[in-house]
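Data availability (excerpt). The following record was deposited with the supplementary files.
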Amino acid sequence: MKRRIFMWTGRVCLPLMAVVAAATTVLNYYAVHNFHTIDKHLVFRERILHGFATTDVVPAYPIPPTFPMWGYGFVLLLSTNKLLLIVLQFAVALGSAWYFLRVVDESGLVDEWGRFWLRAFMICCLPWYAYHSIDWSQSLATSFLVLSVSLLIRAVRHEPIAWRYLGASAICLGINLNFASDLYLLPVALAVTYWWCAGLSRLSFTHAAAWLVVVIATLIPWMVYSWRATGAPLVKSTNQGHVLLIGLGQDPRHRFATTYSDDDPFMYRILRQRLGDDFARRFYASCSYEADRVLRPAFVQMIRQQPYDYLDLIRLKLGQILTGDIGTYAGEFDQGGNEGRFGVGNRVRNRLQRYSVEEGRCLQLGTTVFGAIAVWAGVAARKRAWLLVMVTIAYQYLSCSVAALQPQYVSNLILFQLLVCAHGVGVLCSWWTRQRSERLLSPRRLASR
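Predicted structure:
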């Protein structure tokens, strides 16, 4: 009976995920997601159509030429239709989820119970579907991150080395970085982890270095474009100083001079003092190359003056993630234009929203609880590929704790977190099954029969 259930779950997983994806698209179709509007990427679409222009090609929306990253602008060349974009995002997301499942099965990271629970969790994880149901760059960026880590797991387990997996992993991560630059230091962490997983030999170091070189090579077109725009080749967008400064404004004890706002008065006072009033009045001035060169040193100066306060703020933010307090992006099923749409009443929508919020929080808390088991599997049980997953999670946790923290910023980890939770629950189920079998086969139980 157990085998049949496991086989059935494996067969229906992807079709059921597709059904849930379609339903979520309908229920969350009118989400506003003010935290990440598509307008900036539409401007980049126009820049590309104008021969990669670095000037203001949309006077009504004159964002700096190096913010945000340009990846989604290329996608918008295919279509600007919202429904088609969401369908594309879900197609890529489901494809990356399918490949992720395949690699997990082949790599032996989890046992049969873990594989069952991973599929069950993926079918039921409403925050994952909500995350991909809005038209934004992070959906495709996350799918390519999942593909990259999956390919890297396959490469580290393949002997002799399969360069096609290693190269494809590097290209996928490079594509991710062309969509969003918040993971721009992750390639270094993954390269070091790959080297360790592959045995710390000179040959594995060469493989890790080659992988890292290919990742960097995918950013060369952006570096050329940013050099034309600013006079300096960049590997990321130019809003880092902006994000770091307003991230200090998330301190609940208000120990820093900033506020968590894109229009933070302290930040713009620095821009007026250093770059002049005319510059500070520009649209998205704080996300420009010139502003970034001013705001990053200002951030460093602030944390030098208050190092212990800053470390305590990192501790507080990290605690919010580890305890599940911050949660994930949960959709906007009962908000704004979604209310009462498509014949689904607010009573149902309210329940879905509450379920999605609580599921995101439980997912993060479960990752904390079961993370130790995953690390143990990677170190003591010699399943070193686990470390590639855990390093990715740890990087994003620390990145959000150091800079700005919002539910949507950690939602790119959902599939990895589901794997950690499924592994933990699977270990408990396997232990319980063994204990039950031992009790049934004990001499006393047999004698009583």
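Summary of structural features: The chain is about 70% helix and 0% strand.
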